[in-house]
Each structure stands twice: as C-alpha cells, then as structure tokens.
Design a protein that fits this description.
- Helix content is 41%, strand content 19%.
- It is built from 13 helices and eleven strands.
- The strands form three sheets. It has a five-stranded mixed beta sheet, with helices on both faces.
- Helix 5 packs across helix 6 (110-120).
- The chain is globular and about 55 Å long.
C-alpha cells in the first residue's frame, strides 16, 4: 500500500483506481494534493489486532480486550512490537489508534503526547515488516505484536496465539484517482460490485477475509482527515525514545540488478534518509561476487548524509 502511494504521490504512475487498506490512506493522498473520491467503503473485510501467546494472554485474564493488553504492557507483563507506520498500514493504524486511546478528541493534546511518549519508551521493537516482527518474536525480544487478521489466520505457526482486534478496520476501500471520466467512474463502481457476488465472497472468505465483522472500531477515523502527515512527523520525533540506532544498508549490485531494479534500489535508499534521525549511525555495504564497504558506520549528521548520498550514487 505504501509503495502504491509513493508511485501516486510522486507522479510516477497515476491509476484511475486505488485500493487502500483503510480510509487513512485516502486522507494521506488528499494531503499530498492528489484528488481522490471514495467509490466503495469496503471491498473485503479485515481488521488489525494484537497477536499474543494464548497461555500468556490467559495468565492475566483480560476482560477489556485491548485496554487490558496495554495495561499489561505498562506493567511489564507484555513486550509489544509494531511495524513502522511510515511504510506499514498496520503500523500507521496502531500509532493513530494509540493516540486516540490516550485522547479521543485531540491526538496532539499534552495528555495524548505525554502518554504516547511514555508508551513508546516501553516498546521493545519497531520493525519494517511483519516477517521482521515474527523474527523478533522467535528470538524472544517481544511476546506480542501487531498484525492483520487475514495474515494471522493463514499463518500455521501462530496457531497457539490469540488475536485481539483493535483500531481502524482494514476493509480495503476503493478510491477513484484524479479527474476521471464518468465512464471510468462507472467501471470502478462495477468493479466494486464484483466483490458482492457470491463467488467472490466465497473466495474471500476462504482466504481469511470478511471475518470479525462484528468488530466495530471505537476510533473516529474522520477526525484524522488532514492530520496523517503531522502524526507521522510527530512519530518520527518520538520513535527512538532517546535510543540510538545503528544500521547498515546492504545493497545487491550484482548483474541481476541492472536497469530499473538498481535505479529503484538507489531511489529507496535515498528516500529512507527522511526516516533516520541525525543522532543515529548509518553505513552502506554493497555486494556482487565480492563485498564492499561503501560508507563506514557513522553518525548521520549533515556531512555524513552527503557521504551517504555519494555512496549510494
């Protein structure tokens, strides 16, 4: 979803229709000046939630769902991880839902920001993908994490885990992008209607969608219209919680990467700069049949940012 948004926002590719994970992404496009119109609130039903070991979940016998899990995290009984909200719909949903949890009326109130900052200090890991999150789970760094239900129910390795839904529903709304014609809009409406047909509904159900339909989000998603970028900027300022991060970008430059692949790799590496604070350490390693240290691990200050760009180029 974030990759599709990057294509649309940058003007690299502008489709007539776009399936977003949730309405937050429609808001994000609008904030970037991309004209869009909601065609369908839902193509297939899905939710996100906290995934937690059943035995651990039962040990503190929560009776209030997500609230009890949050309190268990505060008390040190749980160690929750979530995915980076700048590149993960689940992560963005989680951050916005937490801010809403702290203050339903104003995500930037003193109460909301103070409580979120305190909560962020208890977080063990923020990963760039669900696979990285599961690796942290396997290594014992966390014992609970954020995931979509459709992915959860199809993962046999999580059969001993409980799923507690929360946050904005991921019902995959369909948007019309740009100033499309009436005929194009009607085609999008016809496309949305396909998802109401029995054959498609059956297939979606078999794949794990359209579950948890009884779940109704407490989050009033519409209050975040026009606030997505501001929330992401706030999160970037809070994400490290005072802890420095050391990261090497490891880049495949072998012959198989020629052309658009290497160009995309370079673009992604440069774009990643906006998500890295100056207090962190960054290096660049590339490889083909050999390994090259293009930029040694260094504090990411203005000077080393220039060296980093040069190494990527």
């Amino acid at each position: 979803a974030t990759l599709a948004e990057d294509f649309i926002k940058s003007g690299t590719y502008s489709p007539q229709g776009y399936i977003a994970p949730n309405k937050l992404y429609g808001f994000s496009l609008k904030e970037s000046g991309i004209n869009n119109k909601l065609v369908s609130n839902r193509l297939v039903g899905n939710t996100i939630g906290i995934v937690i070991d059943k035995e651990l979940y039962n040990s503190f016998a929560p009776s209030t769902g997500f609230e009890a899990i949050f309190e268990a995290n505060e008390d040190g009984k749980l160690s929750i991880g979530y995915t980076n909200p700048t590149n993960s719909p689940t992560g963005l949903n989680f951050v916005i839902s937490m801010l809403y949890y702290f203050d339903a009326n104003n995500p930037f109130s003193i109460e909301a920001t103070t409580d979120f900052s305190n909560f962020q200090n208890t977080i063990s890991t923020v990963s760039y993908s669900t696979n990285q999150m599961k690796e942290a789970l396997n290594r014992g760094i966390i014992n609970a994490f954020v995931m979509e239900y459709q992915a959860f129910i199809n993962d046999d390795s999580l059969s001993n885990y409980e799923f507690i839904p929360f946050g904005v529903r991921h019902d995959y709304p369909l948007y019309a992008i740009g100033n499309i014609s009436e005929d194009e809009l009607n085609i999008l409406k016809d496309f949305a209607d396909l998802f109401k047909e029995e054959e498609i509904l059956t297939l979606a159900n078999e794949e794990g969608f359209n579950k948890n339909d009884e779940y109704v989000s407490e989050v009033n998603v519409d209050i975040y219209d026009g606030m997505i970028e501001e929330i992401l900027s706030y999160w970037k300022s809070e994400k490290s919680s005072g802890r420095k991060v050391a990261v090497y970008f490891v880049c495949d430059i072998s012959g198989s990467m020629d052309g658009i692949k290497i160009a995309s790799l370079k673009e992604s590496a440069i774009n990643a700069m906006q998500y890295i604070g100056e207090e962190n350490l960054v290096g660049v390693i590339s490889y083909n049949s050999q390994v090259y240290i293009n930029h040694k691990l260094s504090i990411f200050n203005e000077e080393n940012q220039e060296y980093y760009v040069g190494a990527i180029d």
